[in-house]
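Obj.: predict assembly geometry.
Materials: sequence records (below).
Method: joint structure prediction, all chains together.
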Amino acid sequence: MSAIEAVYIFDEHNNLLLSHTYTGRPPPPLVLLPLYLQHAAPRPSVLYFPSLHPSTVLYSIVQDNLLFLSPSSGTDTEPLLILEFLHRVADALEEFLGSPLLASKIASNYDIVAQILAEVADAGIVCHGEANALRDVVETGPGVLNNLLGKVGLPGSTAVPGLQGGGPMVMSGSGGGIQRTVSGLSALQPAQTAQGSAIPWRRNNVKHTSNELYVDIVETLSVTLAPSGRLLSAFAYGSIAFTSKVSGVPDLLLSLSTGGKGAGVGNRGDQLRAVMERTVFHPCVRLGRWKSEGVMSFVPPDGRFALCGYEVDLLGPEAPLTAGKSTYGSLGLPAGVEITIGLGSSGNEFEVRLTQPTTSGGGASIATASLQSNLSGGSGIGSRLSANKPGIGTGDSKAPSLDKLTMRVPLPAAVRNVTELRPSKGEAHWSPADGSVEWKVAAKDFGPLGAVLRCTIQGPLAADGENAGAVLNGMTATTYDYTDDEPASAYQTLDGQEKQSNGIATPVSREAKVEKSRELMPTSATLSFGVKGWLASGLRVESLLLDNKKSRGLGPEVKPYKGVKYLTVSREGIELRC
Amino acid sequence: MESISRISSLLETARDLTLEAARDAGPRKSTRPLPAPQIKKLLDSRQEREVLDGLRRIIAMQYANPPQATLTFFPAVLKTLSHPYPSTRPLVYNYLIHHAELDPDTALLSINTIQKSLSDSSPRVRAMALKTMAGIRVPVISQIVSLAIKKGVSDLSPLVRKAAALACVKCVRLDETTRSQVEEYLAVLLADKQYYVAGAAVQAFMEVCSTERLDLIHPVYRRLCRMVVDMDEWGQLALLKLMTLYARRCFPRQTKRTKRAQTREQKARDFYEDLEPESQSQSFEADYEEISIADPDLTLFLTSIAPLLQSRTSAVILAVARAYLYLGPSTHLPSAIGPLIALLRSPQDIQQVALHNMVQVCLAQPSLFVPYYRHFLLRSTEPPNTRGLKLEILTLIFPSCSPEIQSLLLAELEHFSRSPNPALVRESVRAIGRCAQSPNLTSSRRCLALLLNQLHSSDDNLVGEAMQVIRHLIQRSPTEHKKTVIRLARNLDHLTSATARAGIVWLVGEFADSARDEVGQNGGVAADVWRILVKGYAGEGEEVRGQIVGLGAKVYLRWLNERKKEKEEKSVNGAGGELLLSPRTKENHDGEERGFAGNAVTHQQQEEKETSHPIELLWQHTLLLARYTPSYHLRDRARLYRALLAIPSSTELASLLLLAPKPVPQAPSPSESRREYLLGSASLVVGEDMRGVALPEWVEEGREPDAALRDETGDGTGEYVGQGESGRAGTVSAGERLDGLLAPGGGVGPAKKGGRTLDAWLNEEEGTESGGESEGSVESEEETSTEDETEEESESEEDEEAGLVK
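Observations (raw structure tokens):
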């Protein structure tokens, strides 16, 4: 009834990479693929093919350019169950094969993939969703994972149990590839960890040479601006990715602070919950503690996992509908955008302007944010809090760095060409394929003065011919004054058709031209960027404590290395309408 | 919905995917194919490493594209099964499951070894063996599998018990005849103390029994409700589905006013209601229906699933919302809306499905979504499907919004109606049209004004769409919109969109006639519009021409009718009637009518003889124009009209055809057609019925299973469940007790009988005094009668089962 029938994985060229059948006789992958590809490009994730027998619903997700398909024929199923399952499969594969998932990785590790697929669902019933716990059951064999992780260059590969009897168990810590041999005999092998893990999401017998904990908070912006520049909506969708590399069974306590937002509403937990709305948690988080104190208390899985998801309404809970208060500047985003259309002598030009917000929002808030992080340095996490994670590069919370500033202006399909692109900074180009102008500005070029891009667009050929004709006929036609006044009184004298022909014969006044090219003007523009070391919501990690009393299998003197990273991303997330 | 791979793709933007792909695309380090004999040699080796290598190669061959023949290795692979190495086992099992069906005889050779593994000291090995054995699709072994499950059910390790639960499904699929045994095992497993065993058991139960055998759930109901928070997502999903069905079957509908005195809460209320003044008790009465009488067991379920709203799995959130929507809409549903909104931040694929479901909830309770309207503002980067659904939600919540929000939403819709994308324009204009249907007069007037404004746009597509929506609006209440029609007619001068012009012409033909009084002219505006249009007939498109001819026919017909009426009046009142027409034409006509009454006169003759009324002349002119139109369809139509209106005195048929009131067009929300599909089902998303499990109607009062069945059979036994044999003993005793309860003359017997007779009595009552108890519809009666049967069945099964256990 809610059974997974099969999973098919295709690579980026739509070649079949893997097919695993769980139950029944689902339609083969090569029958489904053409049907799937028949649909136009943004393909819905749930497709229905009544032409197949039995009629089949096809579920699909795309992860790292790989296409995952799962057919379901016969009875009704829960679409979200299957889609979630496919995401979990992708997660599990990533856990074992490293991120990003590549076709070649799968092809060279069929044995591991086969085991993963067999474990996650039994006879089509999903039974094992936790990627990390799968490590207990999936045999990776000697060397495979080491090679792989070494090849991918994951920062700090997770411990890989050696396989061979008496063989060394190689652990490569992130601290520079120290290799240490542990006398891990076959007793440590996955299949022999006798009882199942007591904690369903954590594998057994975790051992790390260097204990590390990382908190990565990522916020994705979704902001919509009205043509007037007024904010229609502004959300930050946040996720907390947690990386735990601590031996034994650690019990952690993560507290966040709102950075001043929502002050005056009850205690700290209430404030936090007022800012972080609609939270979802990994099953490891104790919901009771979150409800009562607003802290996340949990025993993490080993390795990296998504601890929490939340959203922040940047406009505040009851934002006024009237304009004025809710301006773009108040968000404190690092870049603002304006767009003016219908410029030039014939109104066929538009101008996009990137600005650094002049209101106190932008720079100041970032400065205060970093100040706070300095202050909070004293509490619990220590001064290493804002220290960089190895290999992350610039952009810690002290000096937020902006990068990948990209403006995208989609143009209507009628636009034939963009004749002129004049960016004051950066590079701009028009790609006819997806019908949009893309403008990239390097962060270092982006100063307080901002940057401007001016484009001239050309309409369809027919319209041009008309224009040319109008200019040629310009001398002879003298009645345009009359026609201009006409529409109001034309009811009795002229019928629409005649007037129309007159209109074409006369030279088009500027207004008419503007009106004409108005259809060619963009209706929206989107801004993408990434800011490291800054969160739009103003959330901060206040402390991350390891409860030595509750934890097991961890020496009392162990002080794990802790790192925090903030990242705000806008992936075409700031949309300006015009 | 939170998937780490998505987050890591955000985090690791720096890493260039293509670069890595290029590095990886080099010579694959993967195993180069070896010839078959060499692989066999590897398998026969005594070294674990070599055996493993051989197995790996075979698995890779099995999955490779194109697939290679791996069946030949079957015996060699099976031989490795006897190796003591744990590392090779999963691969061998994998191979075995994959190939068993192709070569059942060889597969059977492995059964013995696997059976040995069933009593291995390591629980993981036992679990794996059980899983594999059940996975071998050879029907002959079904009894062996069944025995293995029986052993697994009483295993000490929860891992094995979980495997046993999942094996139940495979066993039934393998051989239907094992069903009764399997159900017995499931009954034990459902009562397991370990939450993940119980979760798997629920999954298996849903797969094996679906909606039958709900009697197995009674004794474990409360325990499962308490356990649901700890189960894994998949167990939660199965349980949520099961309990939603169960609740409908086992708790009578709560909105009835019949008082259920069982609940203490309600007794208390009854008590206080007597004391309180009349007015207050009435206000109490208002929510009395909705909140008051939830069965405590149902409340237990509804409250225990509340924490699941913070699950990271979108399917779980939706399943909770489904339970709330169908079981306790007024009390719990509001708390599920926020988490539903949270689904909007999940990946695109999940988002789409979530939106479909949100629309479904929104159709039921639009007002709940109002605070979240900002989430449904459209974005230019979204796929069309998502946009359509968002627009639909916006229009659904529109009537319940405050005026400020309404104007914001309208501005939003207006913005998108000017988009270059025709599909989006159409959808947003239609959305405005749906908003205009709101009962609030000012807002619907604002919508209409907005649409009328759009007629001035230079975008033909937009104008056409807007015109259609306006037409629908006017058709819905023509009397209110007399002036609108005239204003529209004025637009004909500069409109270019053919569909819009045609629409206006049609509207003028239909409704402008009623505007006559104000204009005071014969034929009203319609005749004048007709006159002007005929002038430009040659320049019009075919669609508009057709409408012009139609308009002409209507005006002419009305004119004829008018004249006829006058004539009748005249004949009644004598010759001194007041004239509406100019005296000259009037006389003419009168004379003519009388003169030619007897002999049938053709039109042409009539035309020639008369210095006729302009309308008539215009009609003739129009017919001539239509006659020489290239389109045969239009010529046909003109011919039809000509024939219809050929005899001015008999216009009844023509009136029937042309002036018949047109049915009012309905523009329901697009998802209205999907309303009957279950929330969260695939049918809802694809819009086709796919034979899912239908949600049963609420069980009728008095027909529900006794609440005492859900009493936990002594918490003591509950504690022991799952600990070897004693667990079985515990459930056996539960079964016995159940049996005792159901036995004739037992505790429940009389109550049940009483319920039935009461029902029969109620039915009679309903039959005689129709409508008094109209809530108990015929359908539900049928429902319950079938349910009766199932109940009886289940009782007998219960007896059987008890016998078996004994």
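Conclusions so far: The first helix of chain B runs from residue 4 to 11.
To do: check interface contacts against the pulldown list.
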